[in-house]
Amino acid sequence: MFSPHKDFLAHTLANAGAEHSASHSILSAGTEVTFLDTGIIRFEPNTAATTSLVISCGVHGNETAPIEIVNKIISDLLDEEQKCTQRVLFIFGNPLAMVAGERFVDINMNRLFCGDWQHNDLTLPEVKRAAKLEAYVANFFAEEPVTVTQRLHCDCHTAIRESARQKFAVYPFVEGRELPQSQQDFLAQAQVNTVLLQRKPANTFSSFTSLKQQAESFTLELGKARPFGENNLREFTGIDNTLRKLIAGEPLPTCMEGAVEAFEVCHEVNRSSEAWQFFIADDVANFTEFKTGALIEQDGEREYRVGDAPEYIVFPNPKVPVGHRAGLMLKKVGL
């Protein structure tokens, strides 16, 4: 299927900027495999599937560990060493950035979804790719059989910055929605024991599938970004095994109370002017705790200090342009 390349990843890297005509094959167990496009492949079992599962990675090209894990799952499915009873769409999001070994080439793809690609330069490859990914995912869900009762999306990433909590999930905001027990079970089984509950809409890939496709979705931050071949994949056995269970249709055990801790945003840090000051060191890890009264940012007479309970910072980046987000302050909440 990937000739002359050895596997799906090798084909994707060799054809990063190329179009690919869809091709089909049937495995001996009856699973239909459709190679839709460069970096996009679908598996349809010949049994009555109850789940439509999207597994994406490589939306940021230098976040390679999930790519390597997913590539092995795809190889095992094709070799029929991995059981497949559910519909699965695999996506390597940004092949050009994967080849470059960079987060992105021209524009951060994970800020282009929910239709935001329409408001950017449509000649840029990453803008065109975001539009195509939306279409492939929408078609995948639209074509599901009546037996399907749930839609899931795992968008797998690794972080540039170290984290006091090595693995964490971001749960996109949907009006009136709370994190169900089934998704807490998924996170606990995947050894992702921290979840950030978003409280406003966003334009990430997982937000698109949540808001526009009614899927239970996560952005999964699974560790540190490293080049291909430099990942210790033993650190990712939790997510690897759990994705395999979902694909096989195996039930996940109910997690113990408190197995997953939840946070929500209590303050958005924005670089408000050239005179703005940020009092967070460059090497501070995600989920670093700050005590009551700690000064976080200041711009003239405006300042932000930690409130009555400890707060935690994620995604600090003081080098953003004026008017852009420079970090998020979080507080713990109950589930």
Automatic annotation (TrEMBL):
Give the metabolic or biological pathway.
Amino-acid degradation; L-arginine degradation via AST pathway; L-glutamate and succinate from L-arginine: step 5/5
Q: What is this protein called?
A: Succinylglutamate desuccinylase
What family is reported? Belongs to the AspA/AstE family. Succinylglutamate desuccinylase subfamily.
A GO molecular-function annotation: succinylglutamate desuccinylase activity
Please list the reactions this protein catalyses.
N-succinyl-L-glutamate + H2O = L-glutamate + succinate
**Where does the record place the AstE/AspA barrel-sandwich hybrid domain?**
259-332
User: Which GO biological process annotations does it have?
Assistant: L-arginine catabolic process to L-glutamate; L-arginine catabolic process to succinate
* Top class in the EC scheme: hydrolase
Give the organism, scientific name.
Reinekea marinisedimentorum
